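Risk register update: the risk of archive-format incompatibility is retired. Evidence:
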Amino acid sequence: MPKPVRALAATLALAVAPVFGAELPADPVPAGDTVSFTYAIYYSRTPDPDPIARVRAQVDVPGSGITWTDTLPEQATTPVLHATVVEDAQTELPPPQGESLQYFARDLSDAETQALQSASRVLVMVFAHPAKDALPALARADRIAHDLARQIDGVLYDVELRRAVGAARWRDGRLMGDDGGVPSILEHVAVHAYRDTEWVRAVTVGMRKLGLPELAVDEVAASGGMLMAWIINGIGQRMVEGQQPDAEGWFDLDLRAIRHPDVRERILADLKSNATARGRFKLVPAPPEEGDADNRLLAIGFQAYEGPDVSARQNAAVSALFGWSDAVKYIDHNAELEAASLRAREKLPALRKVVQRGLAPGELIQVKLPFAKPDGGNEWMWVEVLRWNGDRIEGVLSNEPFDIPDLHAGQRVTGSMDEVFDYIYRREDGEVEGNETSRIIERMQGEETRKGGE
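Archived output:
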């Protein structure tokens, strides 16, 4: 996530604090016995009765399981709710607008998007309850917020998640799931991935609602971000379901043991045939960084895996859990391939400038470099570029070598710009250029296969 957008997320998440002033809990972080979180509803029309009356009508009934409070306690002994109305939403608590909606919205309809951006008021609700009641209290809060949004024709905003959520997504993901009473981490939590120097840092937001600490992984290669997010989600979901690290911080993850069916099925869909679906990680308390959620934080460590550096150990963990596949292609470099490589090499100075100015979120540059085999010759493999100074390229190996026993995918490697054979450039908008030589090789292999069958 770009730093300005990340700052906007943090600003919006914390902006509700001035609304309550001294009435906010002194320490809203669930480090002790109390969990608190905030939902907001953006709306325009003036309802009758007013929103606060509607909130009180939701809770001031027998069996609601929650009570109204005029002043939020520092320690909640029972579930309570306090609410207020921001009369000038566009000035005091502006909703996400335009391009930022791609980061701060989930499944809004066109009508909801328009209503959010034009909203004149915000109903802000702070829920607090004992940590032991976190999950049932969260379920009640989700129901109350959903019902109130329907009554006042408003758009729901989950402050901890830092997302506006469409009514249908809220209903189906939080109220109607076949989950046996276990909430889905995919509905309540987001994994933010952003550039931290040349690496990607992945960190959750939203775990506070569940009475749990946020989870983070540092020094992630951009090409491995999706599967790393699944590891974070898998650990988080199992924590929601009651699993905790042992006294030394070790956490044994079994993806097939995930109880929530939707989360389990979505994660297992990325498993290859040689996957173990099991991993061992060490969860260590860490200080939050600027822009992180106002919550405790656990860093996920990969000490259980072998490798000469952090990225290699991360790759070993990902390969063990999800499996891996690779293929070696033996091709003679003919004139067509050499010409395509020459065209690719003409783009390298411009790509070096992109790396040196700093890769944006979503950007990825890989180059194909030769690595010497013990018995002579080279094995050509893709390298995700981290640094590019002069002719020297530093990066992370993207392929698992076939003929080089001491080298593995995920290791940090170096190479020379003069040796680059081809490149892949994925732009911030997802458009991909380069890799012309691979398309030629695939065509050549297809032709060889057809000849062999004649």
